[in-house]
Amino acid sequence: MKLSIIVPVGRPETARRTVESILRQGPCPALVQIILVGAGLAALREQYRDPRIQYVELPGRLNPSATRIAGVEHATGDWYLFVDDDIELEGSFLERLTSVIAGEDHAGAIGARLPGRERSYFSRVTDLANFWSQQSLHSGPRDWLYSAVLAVSRRVYAEVGGFAPELAIGEDVDLTRRIRQAGYRVCYQSDLVGYHHHRRTTLARALAYGWQNGGLAKFQFKGDPQVRAWSAMMVLRTLALSLVATVRENGRDGHDFYWYLPGIIVFYCVFALSLEWNYQRCLIGFLRAKGKTSSGGQPAARNVFVRKHVDSSDRGRRGEALFFLVMAILRENILLILMVGLLFAVLVSGPCASE
User: Fold this and answer.
1) What is the DSSP secondary-structure string of 46-107?
2) N or C: which end of the chain has fewer CB within 10 A?
3) What pTM was estimated for this model as a whole?
4) How far is Cα 47 from Cα 186, in angstroms, rounded to an integer?
């Protein structure tokens, strides 16, 4: 078995820590090359002259998915190990990884545990909320993995088509889900550790990261574009599913997890709102594109007020556009509004009835 390590370099100043953690690894006969791929590699090239390092200089900065693809084009190993440039591998990582690969008959992808290096409250909240599926001390199968530290079989990577270059976010989830759908095992190994220097150490940075991840809506929308207005139920659904998944995977690791739960809830509230906001942006762009490319005008919509809102907005009729937006939101959330109204009526009438 031969192993190629691929490091997409977008931050040369932090990549040094990553490169040094790789070079400090114990003897690993399987390691055949370390590929550093990105723009502005001159300083790294000058500092690290290890013969195993191959520098792939790009003309400009690409998204992480496209950068990894450029690295794969130069890889010769039977397995690819993708390591982000803010990761520090534990000392015996490569030795353990080769042992895991040798013991897995049908593995397509293997992910590592990703604890944050910084130990502030909000750094740990980011670990448990944003990288929740790779924090547990218990190994096991996963529906998907993160690419911060991700080993993928060369053959499986080629079979499923590799990273999608157009995805700037969620590309790792997309790839590993396709690997699993192709019938291969997607494995999480808690004894493989890559320390993550994500630098989300304050409330503002953690919440900004949660909002940024709402860009996953583009991936969500691509698969099943549904024409609908802002939906409070979708926000609540995202919040509930995220919390359940995080608690299920990490709640059994000790009581310390629950100390971070309030911060995790706030993080997921921001993420759920951002996901819905970005979904609506995708929807408006979708409707406008359809209107321009289809001779029949706008397509039929589940919520006709959404279509009228976009039409009025495009014509510059702001008041009318606002009216249709409000109507669309009311129609989309009418069931929830009625349920809240009924609950309020029961709560208000209860004391009166007892008097």
Assistant:
1) HH---TTEEEEE-SS---HHHHHHHHHTT--SSEEEEE-TTEEE-TTHHHHHHHHHHH-SSE
2) C
3) 0.81
4) 36
Residue 22: half-sphere exposure toward Cβ, Cα within 13 Å: 28
Residues found in the chain? 355
pLDDT band at 225 (very low <50, low <70, confident <90, very high): low
User: CB neighbours (10 Å) of residue 262?
Assistant: 11
Q: How far apart, in whole angstroms, are the C-alpha atoms of residue 353 and residue 181? A: 57
Q: Which two tokens stand for residue 228?
A: 């609908």
Distance set, CA 189 to CA 97, 134, 138, 248 (Å) = 9, 8, 8, 17
303 & 185 share domain: no
- Contact at 8 Å (CB) between 312 and 289? no
Q: How many CA atoms lie within 13 A of 210 on its CB side?
A: 28
Residues 6+ apart with CB under 8 A from 257: 128, 247, 250, 251
**Calpha distance 82→145 (Å, rounded):** 12
Residue 340 belongs to domain spanning: 288-354
pLDDT in tens, 298-324: 444 456 777 777 778 878 888 887 887
